[in-house]
Design brief:
The structure holds two protein chains of two kinds. Chain A has 19 helices and two strands. Chain A is mainly α. Chain A has three domains: 1-128, no CATH class; 155-269; 286-483, no CATH class. In chain A, strand 1 and strand 2 (73-77) form a beta hairpin. Chain B has helices at residues 11-21, 31-55. The longest helix of chain B has 25 residues, at 31-55. The chains are: A mainly alpha, B mainly alpha. Chain A: It is a multi-pass membrane protein.
């Protein structure tokens, strides 16, 4: 079943490649194949979730390919990776549907790259080998680079693509060196064997710093946040959605799988450092968000602030914190794409601008959009009944056990997130209809409505009933902490 | 990617937005910016790190009764 998850998008892209875009109806055929492939993959992942046994902390559905020349491929899923896999397969059809009508040139290659990206993301969350984890971690970069350069908007998209590529590559260099050093200590790169190895604290410290640098750039944490807002602003909508929903979760997954699992003593030792960086990131990113005047950049900076609370929860060294961090990461994977669809898809498609000063009084002609945008804005601030609320509260409760002062500083993020979220919503929704807009904007189309409702349902459903997630991850998180 | 534009561009807003976008191109280290950089990049993180390291695992909340100290022994 796991192999099927990775192969289905590749099969879909191979079906699309021979089709010529210029021929009659082929564009519709290409889009239909892409969306059908991604929905089939989501259905397969639902079967994976239904078959998953929550009563064990072992890797399940383990599939091994040791006869391949490219290396020892071993895939498996546990409670922690299961929901990242589900998030990836859920968000890919959303990403495809978000850019369904506004990419008209080279749509074939755009959709092929999206499907291949899905395979690579799934491979990262499923692989049980450290070296191949690194390979898949890096593999998404060239696709995103091309996506921003070719399909992006904005005059400085070449700079944005370069920043994305070079920042992440710089960090990954240290991760590669750390993997080599880790191999020299343990003579294995298998996750299951590495989790049993015992490395001295002195040996762990340098490894930890190298891995942390790579993941801190990917998260991103201060002072490495310079690439994300640019990549989001200039990326096409599907790229922004994938970047917010899954690419940022690579780092979250890496922290859990590698830092907490393989280097626990160093994780404990560097706790204050991580808390410092997370708090500085939270406050600086939140303050930067308040002054932004580009809607997509504002949502991008708010992503940075939310990810810093995820980091606080992950490094709290208790079950509440880590489970809260996973919940918040998943919630962010629903709400952030929804906000990008609202500002970077719906508003940008109609008005052609992302500058807040031009957009005002949208409630006059777009009441349904305004309602949904309001709900997602509230979810972003962490209102009760949303999954964001549970994730944030559990993360802060977790870090309170370790360091209440840091937790109190982290709670200021809730206030600041309310400031910038309400500012954005109020500014563009209410007031007199903007004098700069010389036409009436239409409300949501059926496609846009379906996209937003699809993202709203899991946010509220899981916010009311989080046990759907917590039951499956509880054993895996417990064994992470107590083994 | 062609995007239909409904917006009547205002040259003042465009100039202001360009100024905000290109602020990094005109940055240089003056006395004021050096002070802000030092405060934001060195002083504040150092203070937070000092507070974090001093209070890490310092307080224990569970099973406390009236009169018990919160400070972990």
């Amino acid at each position: 079943m796991i192999t099927l998850l990775i192969l289905i998008p590749i099969i879909g892209s191979l079906m699309i490649l021979p089709l010529q875009e210029d021929y009659l109806n082929n564009k519709n055929k290409i889009k239909t194949i892409a969306i059908t492939t991604s929905i089939i993959n989501f259905i397969v992942s639902i079967f994976l979730w239904l078959e998953f046994d929550s009563n064990t902390n072992q890797y399940q559905f383990v599939t091994e390919f040791d006869y391949l020349p490219i290396g020892h491929l071993i895939f498996g899923v546990d409670g922690i990776s299961l929901y990242f896999v589900l998030l990836t397969t859920f968000i890919t059809p959303v990403a495809i549907l978000s850019n369904y009508n506004n990419i008209n040139v080279n749509i074939k290659y755009f959709l092929v790259s999206l499907l291949i990206l899905e395979s690579l993301q799934l491979a990262l969350f499923l692989i049980l080998d450290l070296l191949l984890f690194y390979v898949f971690f890096e593999s998404v970069l060239p696709l995103f680079f091309i996506k921003i350069l070719v399909y992006g908007s904005g005059e400085s998209r070449d700079r944005s693509a370069n920043l994305l590529f070079l920042y992440t590559l710089f960090g990954s260099l240290f991760m590669a060196l750390a993997i080599v050093q880790l191999y020299s200590y343990t003579y294995t790169t298998d996750f299951q064997l590495l989790s049993l190895c015992d490395i001295s604290l002195e040996g762990q410290k340098l490894l930890w710093l190298a891995f942390f640098l790579a993941f801190a750039i990917k998260t991103p944490l201060w002072p490495f946040t310079g690439w994300l807002y640019r990549a989001h602003a200039d990326s096409p909508l599907a790229g922004s959605i994938l970047l917010a929903a899954t690419i940022l979760k690579f780092a979250t997954y890496g922290y859990i799988r590698i830092l907490i699992n393989f280097l626990p003593d160093a994780t404990n030792y560097f706790g204050p450092l991580v808390q410092t960086i997370a708090i500085v990131t939270l406050i600086y990113a939140s303050l930067s968000t308040i002054i932004q005047q580009d809607t997509k950049t504002l949502i991008a900076y708010s992503s940075i602030a939310h990810m810093s609370i995820v980091i606080l929860g992950l490094f709290s060294n208790n079950i509440q914190g880590i489970e809260g961090a996973i919940l918040l990461a998943l919630a962010h994977g629903f709400v952030s794409p929804a906000l990008f669809i609202c500002v970077g898809g719906i508003i940008y498609d109609r008005t052609g601008t992302r500058v807040i000063k031009y957009i005002r009084g949208l409630v006059t002609y777009m009441p349904i959009f305004t309602i949904l945008f309001f709900i997602f804005t509230l979810c972003n601030t962490g209102i009760p009944l949303s999954l964001n609320f549970l994730g944030e509260q559990l993360s802060l409760i977790g870090i309170w056990e370790v360091n209440p002062i840091i937790s109190a500083l982290g709670a200021t993020g809730i206030v600041l997130s309310a400031c910038y979220s309400i500012f954005l919503y109020n500014r563009i929704s209410y007031g007199k209809y903007s004098p700069h807009m010389n036409k009436v904007v239409l409300d949501l189309s059926r496609r846009e409505f379906i996209l937003l409702i699809t993202l709203l349902i899991p946010t509220i459903l899981l916010g009311i009933f989080p046990n759907l997630i917590l039951d499956s991850i509880h054993l895996s998180v417990s064994s992470l902490l107590f083994n | 990617m062609a995007v239909p534009s409904f917006v009547q561009l205002d040259p003042a807003i465009e100039r202001w937005n360009r100024m905000r976008e290109d602020a990094y191109k005109h940055f240089r280290f003056t006395r004021r910016t050096s002070l802000i950089t030092f405060t934001g990049c060195v002083l504040i993180p150092s203070v937070i790190y000092y507070v974090a390291s001093e209070t890490q695992n310092k307080f224990k909340w569970t099973g406390k009764r009236k009169g018990d100290s919160l400070v972990q022994s």
